[in-house]
Amino acid sequence: QARAGIISTVEVLKVMEAFVNEPNYTVWSDLSCNLEILSTLLSHTDFYEEIQVFVKDVFSPIGERLGWDPKPGEGHLDALLRGLVLGKLGKAGHKATLEEARRRFKDHVEGKHILSADLRSPVYVTILKHGDSTTLDTMLKLHKQADMQEEKNRIERVLGAISQPELIQKVLTFALSEEVRPQDTVSVIGGVAGGSKQGRKAAWKFVRDNWEELYNRYQGGFLISRLIKV
Fold first, then answer.
1. Whole-angstrom Cα distance, residue 174 to residue 169?
2. C-alpha torsion sign, points 111, 114, 120, 123
3. Per the UniProt entry, what is one GO biological process (predicted)?
4. How many other CB atoms are there within 10 angstroms of residue 143's CB atom?
5. How far apart are CA 97 and CA 100, in angstroms?
6. Which residues, including other chains, have CB under 8 Å from residue 19's CB and lie 6 or more apart?
7. CA-to-CA distance for 136 and 170, rounded, in angstroms?
8. 156-172: per-residue pLDDT in tens?
9. What pTM does this model have?
């Protein structure tokens, strides 16, 4: 109804606040998707920072309850929920989440304590979103060293979280390099487009500037339509 302009978005946010004690992954996943759409729209307004504060307020109680480490008797959905919540808090700049993500990432890179598979994406997104050129270089190094395609794809999907314009360009150039399989290029560009307002503009310009190469690469396949969609 809010998307159709029938009711105020404020009403949606009030309903969302009622879910702070919700334990179900599917519900949180839906809330997260809706907040992501709202965040994207608000990134073009003065309310962007305020929606980040709202995200932190809504997601921090469940984040504190779940913590960083699996508890005995937890199911698969709890692990998914932990990844979702920590990623959301990290991207929004929740201080404790950001500090813990940086600490765990450092241990992971140094080989002291390898991150579990379900925590890698949220940690990577968090440190990139609030990172610099050194962070990006470290991620690209991890990509090069990864012996499993699953890990390479995981890194490719989150590189677009980086915020600085010159680093966004570096990620886009990387998307078309030989380091990335042709079928995975779309994921990297899509990640940039979904990462930030600057990323969206840069990705759109990049697609137009490289349209001939991209079109020749994918012809009429589903990847070209996916690229346009993102």
1. 9
2. negative
3. proteolysis
4. 18
5. 5
6. 27, 28, 31, 58
7. 9
8. 999 999 999 999 999 99
9. 0.93
**What backbone phi and psi angles, to 5 degrees, belong to 158?**
-105, -10
Q: What is the C-alpha to C-alpha distance for residues 222 and 224, in angstroms, rounded to an integer?
A: 6
Distance in angstroms (rounded) separating the CA atoms of residues 49 and 197:
13
Return the exposure string of 77-90: e unless at least 16 CB atoms fall within 10 Å of the residue's CB, then b.
ebbebbbbbbbbbb
pLDDT of residue 200: 95
Q: In the chain, what is the straight-line distance between the N-terminal and C-terminal CA atoms, in Å?
A: 24
Report the C-alpha gap between 185 and 214 in whole angstroms. 9
Query: Which amino acid, residue 107?
Result: D
What are the two backbone dihedrals, phi and then psi, of residue 30, each rounded to the nearest 5 degrees?
Answer: -65, -45
Give the pLDDT mean for 22-31: 96
Residue 217: other Cβ atoms inside 10 A: 17
- Residue 24's region, left for phi above 0, alpha for psi from -120 to 50, else beta, is beta
Average pLDDT over all residues of the chain? 95
Phi and psi at residue 69, in whole multiples of 5°? -110, 145
Rounded to whole angstroms, the Cα distance separating 125 from 131 reads 10
- The half-sphere exposure of 103 on its side-chain side, counting CA atoms within 13 A, is 7
**Element holding 27 (H helix, E strand):** helix 25-42
pLDDT digits (tens, 9 = 90+) for 88-104: 999 999 999 999 999 99
* DSSP run (H or E) holding 84: helix 76-91
Give burial (CB, 10 Å; 0-12/13-18/19+) of 58: buried
